[in-house]
C-alpha cells in the first residue's frame, strides 16, 4: 500500500511513538516518522480506514554510525532480529492508531502480539542504503487486527511482507502493558539464537543467510523478572537449506523441569554449499524433522534455486 503524499507525524502521536522507541533506537528526534497527508474524516469512531493508520518509518543506516552499529552484524550484514523487533513495535503503534488513541489513554484497549504469519524475503537487504518501513492495517476481526509491514530500499519492495495478528481486548483495565516483556525483544533473541545454531551446524565454515521466518507464535506473556530458556534445533536439511526450530520457555528456578513455552518460530537458512544432514534419534526429534520438512518443501518457489 503506497501513499503518494505524506507528512511528518506531530503532536501526541509523535510524542508517544518516540517515547516508546527511545529505548530501542538512537537519535529518535532525527527519525522521519510519516503518515498520510490526506486522511479520511470519520463520523463514527467504531470505523476506520487503512489510510488513517498508515505509518512510514525511515531508518538512516546509510550514513548514521549509531544505526549501523545497532543494525549490522559482525560480518556487516543486517540483523534480521532487529528488524523484526522494530516491526513488532511499529505494528503495535499502528494498531493503537487504528483503534483511536483516546481509548488507549483511558485504558479501554490493550493490544498484545499473538503471532506473525510469515516473513518473506524478496531481495538482499543492502546495509549501505536506508531502510523504509510502511505499516498499515489490512484486516480487522471482532477481537483481532492484522497489520502488514512492507520494507523498501530506493522505492523498491526489497525484503519483507510481514503479517502480524494482534488480539484486541476491550475494557481490561486490570492489565498493565509495561508489566510484560516486549514481544519484539523476544523475537529478536530467538532469531539470533536460531541463526547461531545454524552457524554452529556448518561449523563456522559459511555465513548462513536468513531466507524465511514462519510459524512465529506468542503463546504466553512474559513478566518482568521471569527466567527464560531458549532452545534451538536444526530439524531438517534439504541440499543447502536448513530449518531451525527455536522456542523460548519460562523456567521455574526452583524446579527447572517446570517450564512452559512462551514463544516459538521456525527459521530457514540458506548456505552456498551442501549442508550435512541431520538424523532424528528420538520420537521428539522425528516430529521436529517432519515439521521442518513440511516447511522447507512448501517454501515459495522464488526462494528455491
TrEMBL record:
Give yes or no: UniProt keyword Cell inner membrane: no
Q: Which GO terms describe its molecular function?
A: fatty acyl-CoA hydrolase activity
Specify the protein name.
HotDog ACOT-type domain-containing protein
Under the heading InterPro entries, the entry gives:
HOTDOG_ACOT, HotDog_dom_sf, Thioestr_dom
Family the UniProt entry places it in: Belongs to the acyl coenzyme A hydrolase family.
Q: Where is the HotDog ACOT-type domain?
A: 158-275
A Gene Ontology biological process in which this protein takes part is: acyl-CoA metabolic process
Q: Which organism is it from?
A: Ichthyophthirius multifiliis
Q: Where is the signal peptide?
A: none
Superkingdom assignment: Eukaryota
Q: Which UniProt keywords apply?
A: Hydrolase, Repeat, Transit peptide
